[in-house]
Protein 1
Amino acid sequence: MAAASLFERKRLSVAKSVSGNHATLPISVFLLIPQFFLVGSGEAFIYTGQLDFFITRSPKGMKTMSTGLFLTTLSLGFFVSSFLVSVVKKVTGTRDGQGWLADNINKSRLDLFYGLLTILSVVNFVAFAVCAVWFKPKKPKQAAMQMGAMNGSTAEEKC
């Protein structure tokens, strides 16, 4: 989100420097590549890690339910995103349609909106770091491991 905020500041400065109403700005679309790469790769790592955590750490009978919980967290994220956009429009908007999320993209302040998303992402990361330090994976019980070795099978083979 920080990359998106920086790119938007650059785009706004170009839009203000161009005189008249131009439908297109003299700026390369390839400036979007870093932010799309960062967001896309971040989501790929988050989704695979979250799904792996749900599948490997849940009891055998709840693996399907944990996958459903994974998809539910995605949908809740989309609802929170829509709610955030509505709140920002109400708080920063004016009667003439201006504000951070204005009707005209060249008069809006998307850089500030992306800055807000950057701050929320940092807060989210701090909360994640606290939870990651707090979480301690359970070690398999030694007795169960020994019993499996005596029977010729391990717990991993039974899953």
Protein 2
Amino acid sequence: MWHYKNFVQSGEWALTVIAPTGGVVAGAIVIVGSIVGVAKGTASAGAEVEIRPEGVYDLAKVPADALAAGAIAKVDPATGIVGAAGTKSIGWIVAAAGAGSTTARVRLVPGIA
């Protein structure tokens, strides 16, 4: 394995970030500026937490919303909940999620606009 004096972590499978105000819960969306990922563990605000910035996850969604497969997945940055009125794009809806369902299957896509 190559070692560089300034290497910190690969960032391919996980990133370590500082948990935002309010802290984070394992399995929930974490937004730190433009970085979006799913928390591996629970952490208090200001503590380090490992997040996964890519992959497919079942995430909490607004129960009243119907989301089509292939649509851009958006979350409300204040709640981290996927929904039609979300303002932060995080990836793609990979399986249709009808009204009444509480989760959406999302493929996180870093840098999606």
Protein 3
Amino acid sequence: MAAAQCGSYSELALPLVQFRTTLNPPPAVPLQTVEPQRLYRQIADQLRGLIGKGEFAVGARLPAERDLAQQLGVSRPSVREALIALEVEGWVEVRTGSGVYVLDRSHRASKPVAPTEWGPLELIRARRVIEGETAAIAAAVGTRKDIDAMSRAIEAMRGLADREILPLEGDRAFHVAIVNASGNAVLVETVQSFWDSRNGPIFTRLGGYFETVASWRSAIAEHEAIRDAVAARDAEAARAAMHAHMDNSHQRFSASWRRARKASS
């Protein structure tokens, strides 16, 4: 009986302790919210700090991407994302065929990149993982309606490219048509958010250097290979075609600056 009473007392005492804690909460500790930083932002922060301290004077050319990557122990794509972020913020200027130069910020308003902005090249790698599987799923369960939607998107892309217009909306429609075939709302929203992040300032600026009508014609051919594999119900081929498309996209955005065109400000 004593043991039973002791057990009952413990069960009653625990809510009482919780009730007292609720009435008298412990004093708040002045902690700040911890936010994980994207790698390119950490690189940009270091370079921004060095510029601010005068390590790189106004008008100076920054070390080459390869050298910065070696000194920082990171990949060249991450360095490129950081440099583009700094250009968007007005710290540096990319001069195609010459290098990246420090700008005079004495009369420039700061335009910080949002901390939630994804790095374009990192995003393409993430898309490779997810969209390779959505292409395979489309090949397995997609309907004629889904394949027709892919074909219409490709034709829209080709029509815009023929008019020397970058076919961004057709590209979005194509990738959305593929994921729609899965019937999975979470995957649909994920792929849509991936694609819509292209509208961010870093991706837009990077695209200004490396996206051309010629590069988009290559992408259209890659889309046709994906569509054909889906139509053939070949999941492995569809996955491989999507992986090849994303790998080629990554390569196009990672090309030498000597192959870049002058971006619009």
